[in-house]
C-alpha cells in the first residue's frame, strides 16, 4: 500500500476550554477523495482548520500532523499553503468587495506560473465574469471561485470543507463533477454532509463522533450500511437516495471504534 | 457669502488634517484589528522631526526646497517610528486586544513625555515658508494658505492611497485582508508584511499631518498629536473601519460641522455637535458610512 499523503495522529484541539477534538487519528490516501463525516458539531471543520494551522489563538492543538515526512503543526498557515496544502473553507469565503479576477490574482504566487488554463477549463463562467464583484455572484459561482482560486497553483493535497452547503441541487451536481475531475490529479480530504455527493466521490471515509474517530474504512461500504450511517451520521443512506439492494445487509469492512459503540449505546 | 466660503475652506483644511491622521488609523484597524492609541505620536514625531530638520539638517530649511527636504525628513521619521512600533511592540501582541491598548496608550504617554523632556512642554514657533503665512483671496474670502496647503496635500494623499490600493499587489492584499484576513493567509500570503506596510502608510500620513498642521497653526507642541487623535478616531468610526474613502467623507463632515457651528453658535459647540454626530451614526449605521470594505 502506498504511503498516505496526510497522517493525523492523536490530534486534540481545545478552544476556550472546550475539548473539540480528543485524540483523532486517521490517514488520507495519496489518490482519490477521503471524506470526513459526522453529525454537526463533532469537529470536522476544526480538524481541517487544525491541519492548515487556522485554530484560533485561544485554542490549543496537540498531536502530530504530517504531510509526507513534513510536520505541519509547527508551521504557519501561509507556509503550509505555499508548500502545497490547498484549503477551500466552509462558506466559500470569497472576497466580496473584489472582482473575480482580483480574487484569482490574490492566489498567484511569485516564481510560479498561475494555471489559469486549468481553472477556466473547469470553470469557464469565471472567465466570463472576471470583472464582476465576487459578492454579486450566486452561491454556486462563489463556490467555483473558491475552488478555482486554490487550483491556480499546484497542490499536494486539497482540504475542502462542505463545498455543496446551501447550494441548489443542480449546482451540487456541478460542484461534485468538478471535484471528481480535480481528484483525478490531487488527493482531496473532503468534509461533506450530502451523502449522494459522498457516494459519488469518496473512496475512504473517516467518521467523527463527539470529537473522536468513530469509524474508518471504505466509504462505499459505509454507505451500504443503513443502520450504521443512521447511528453515526443521524441519517440513513436510504434517505440520501441510496437504492435498496442486496448490499443492505452487507457488513462493512471498516474499523469501528469505541467512540462509535459509545455513541450507539447513548442513542 | 465671504464668511461661508471662508468657513467652508477652513473647515476643509481642518478636514484635511483629520483625514491625514484618520486614514492610517482606519487602515490599521481594518486590516490588523489594532486600535493604535500611539498614532498621535507619529504625528508628533513628524512635526518635531520637521521642526528640527528645518534648523539643523544640511540642505533643509524653513523655505523653498529646504522646507520640502525638512518635511520629507519629518515624514521619514514618522514612517520609521511607525514601522518600529509595529515590528517591536505590536507584532507580538496581535489578537491580544487589551495588551495592545495598554502598550499603545503607554507608548503615547511616554512619547509625549519624551518630547516634553527634550524640547519643553511649551509650544514652539514652527519654521515655515513666508507664503504659508499669507492669505489667498477666493471669491472675496481671505483664505489662509496653510489651510489650502493641507487641502492639496490631503487630496494628493487620498489619491495616492486609492491608487496604491487599486493598482498594486499589496493594495490588493490590504483590501482583501480588511474583508477576511484569515482567508488571505489561507491563500499562501504572509499577511504580516501587509500589517507593517499599513503601519508605514499610516505613520507617513500622520507625520505629514504633523508637519503641515504645524505650518497651519504656526507652532509645534508635544500635545498636538493627542488632541487631533480624538477627532481622528471619531472620523474613523463615522467613516467606517477600514475604509479610506469613508474616512475622507467623515473628515469633511466633521471639519465643516465644527467650523460652521463654532462660528454661528458658540465656541466649543462644534465639538459637542461632532460627538452628537458620532452618536447618531452609531445608532443608525453602526458600521459607519462605508462599512468595513475598503473601496478603491
Automatic annotation (TrEMBL), chain A:
Stored InterPro entries: AAA+_ATPase (IPR003593), ABC_transporter-like_ATP-bd (IPR003439), ABC_transporter-like_CS (IPR017871), BCAA_Transport_ATP-bd_LivF (IPR052156), P-loop_NTPase (IPR027417)
Residue span of region Disordered: 236-267
Position of the signal peptide: none
Keyword hit for Kinase: no
GO molecular function: ATP binding
Highest taxon in the source lineage: Bacteria
SMART domains: AAA
Keyword Nucleotide-binding listed: yes
Annotated keywords: Amino-acid transport, ATP-binding, Nucleotide-binding, Transport
One Pfam family hit: ABC_tran
Coiled coil: none
ABC transporter domain mapped to chain residues: 6-235
Protein family according to the UniProt entry: Belongs to the ABC transporter superfamily.
PANTHER family assigned to the protein according to its UniProt record, in alphabetical order: ABC TRANSPORTER ATP-BINDING PROTEIN, HIGH-AFFINITY BRANCHED-CHAIN AMINO ACID TRANSPORT ATP-BINDING PROTEIN LIVF
Protein name according to UniProt: ABC transporter ATP-binding protein
Species assigned in the record: Micromonospora andamanensis
Lineage of source species: Bacteria, Bacillati, Actinomycetota, Actinomycetes, Micromonosporales
Automatic annotation (TrEMBL), chain B:
Residues that span the membrane, as ranges: 6-27, 34-53, 65-89, 101-119, 146-165, 194-217, 229-256, 263-284
Protein's membrane topology: Multi-pass membrane protein
Keywords of this entry: Amino-acid transport, Cell membrane, Membrane, Transmembrane, Transmembrane helix, Transport
Source taxon at top rank: Bacteria
Location(s) in or outside the cell: Cell membrane
Signal peptide interval: none
Listed Pfam families: BPD_transp_2
Stated name of the protein: Branched-chain amino acid ABC transporter permease
Organism: Micromonospora andamanensis
Source species taxonomy: Bacteria, Bacillati, Actinomycetota, Actinomycetes, Micromonosporales
Amino acid at each position: 500500500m502506498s504511503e498516505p499523503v496526510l497522517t493525523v495522529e492523536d490530534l486534540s484541539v481545545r478552544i476556550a476550554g472546550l475539548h473539540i477534538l480528543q485524540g483523532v487519528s486517521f490517514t488520507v490516501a495519496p489518490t482519490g477523495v477521503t471524506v470526513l463525516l459526522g453529525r454537526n458539531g463533532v469537529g470536522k471543520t476544526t480538524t481541517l482548520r487544525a491541519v492548515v494551522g487556522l485554530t484560533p489563538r485561544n485554542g490549543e492543538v496537540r498531536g502530530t500532523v504530517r504531510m509526507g515526512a513534513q510536520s505541519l503543526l509547527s508551521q504557519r498557515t501561509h507556509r503550509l499553503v505555499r508548500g502545497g496544502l490547498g484549503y477551500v473553507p466552509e462558506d466559500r469565503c470569497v472576497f466580496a468587495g473584489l472582482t473575480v479576477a482580483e480574487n484569482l490574482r490574490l492566489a498567484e504566487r511569485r516564481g510560479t506560473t498561475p494555471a489559469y488554463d486549468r481553472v477556466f477549463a473547469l470553470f469557464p463562467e469565471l472567465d466570463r465574469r472576471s470583472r464582476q464583484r465576487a459578492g454579486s455572484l450566486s452561491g454556486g459561482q462563489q463556490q467555483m471561485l473558491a475552488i478555482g482560486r486554490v487550483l491556480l497553483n499546484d497542490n499536494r493535497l486539497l482540504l475542502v470543507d462542505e463545498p455543496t452547503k446551501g447550494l441548489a441541487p443542480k449546482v451540487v451536481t456541478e460542484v461534485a463533477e468538478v471535484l471528481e475531475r480535480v481528484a483525478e490529479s490531487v488527493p482531496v480530504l473532503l468534509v461533506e454532509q450530502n451523502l449522494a455527493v459522498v457516494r459519488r466521490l469518496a473512496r475512504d471515509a473517516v467518521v467523527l463522533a463527539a470529537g473522536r474517530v468513530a469509524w474508518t474504512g471504505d466509504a462505499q461500504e459505509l454507505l451500504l450500511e443503513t443502520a450504521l450511517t443512521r447511528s453515526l451520521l443521524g441519517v440513513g443512506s436510504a434517505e440520501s437516495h441510496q437504492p435498496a439492494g442486496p448490499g443492505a445487509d452487507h457488513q462493512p469492512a471498516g474499523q469501528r471504534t469505541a467512540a462509535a459503540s459509545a455513541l450507539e449505546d447513548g442513542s | 457669502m465671504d464668511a461661508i466660503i471662508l468657513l467652508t475652506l477652513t473647515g476643509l483644511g481642518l478636514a484635511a488634517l483629520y483625514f491625514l491622521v484618520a486614514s492610517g488609523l482606519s487602515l490599521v484597524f481594518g486590516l490588523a484589528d489594532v486600535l493604535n492609541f500611539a498614532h498621535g505620536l507619529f504625528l508628533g514625531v513628524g512635526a518635531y522631526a520637521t521642526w528640527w530638520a528645518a534648523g539643523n539638517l544640511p540642505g533643509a530649511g524653513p523655505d523653498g526646497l529646504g522646507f520640502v527636504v525638512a518635511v520629507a525628513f519629518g515624514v521619514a521619521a514618522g514612517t520609521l517610528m511607525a514601522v518600529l512600533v509595529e515590528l517591536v511592540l505590536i507584532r507580538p501582541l496581535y489578537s491580544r486586544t487589551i495588551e495592545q491598548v495598554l502598550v499603545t496608550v503607554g507608548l503615547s504617554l511616554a512619547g509625549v513625555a519624551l518630547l516634553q523632556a527634550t524640547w519643553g512642554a511649551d509650544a514652539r514657533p514652527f519654521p515655515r515658508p513666508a507664503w504659508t503665512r499669507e492669505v489667498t483671496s477666493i471669491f472675496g474670502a481671505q483664505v489662509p494658505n496653510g489651510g489650502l496647503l493641507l487641502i492639496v496635500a490631503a487630496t494628493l494623499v487620498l489619491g495616492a492611497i486609492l491608487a496604491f490600493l487599486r493598482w498594486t499587489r499589496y493594495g490588493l492584499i490590504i483590501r482583501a485582508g480588511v474583508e477576511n484576513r484569515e482567508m488571505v493567509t489561507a491563500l499562501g500570503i504572509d499577511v504580516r508584511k501587509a500589517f507593517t506596510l499599513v503601519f508605514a502608510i499610516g505613520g507617513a500620513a500622520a507625520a505629514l499631518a504633523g508637519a503641515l498642521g504645524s505650518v497651519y497653526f504656526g507652532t509645534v507642541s508635544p500635545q498636538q498629536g493627542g488632541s487631533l487623535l480624538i477627532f481622528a478616531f471619531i472620523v474613523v468610526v463615522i467613516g467606517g473601519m477600514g475604509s479610506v474613502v469613508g474616512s475622507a467623507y467623515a473628515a469633511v463632515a466633521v471639519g465643516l460641522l465644527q467650523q460652521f457651528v463654532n462660528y454661528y453658535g458658540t465656541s466649543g459647540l462644534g465639538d459637542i455637535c461632532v460627538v452628537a454626530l458620532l452618536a447618531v451614526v452609531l445608532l443608525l449605521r453602526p458600521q459607519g458610512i462605508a462599512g468595513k470594505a475598503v473601496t478603491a
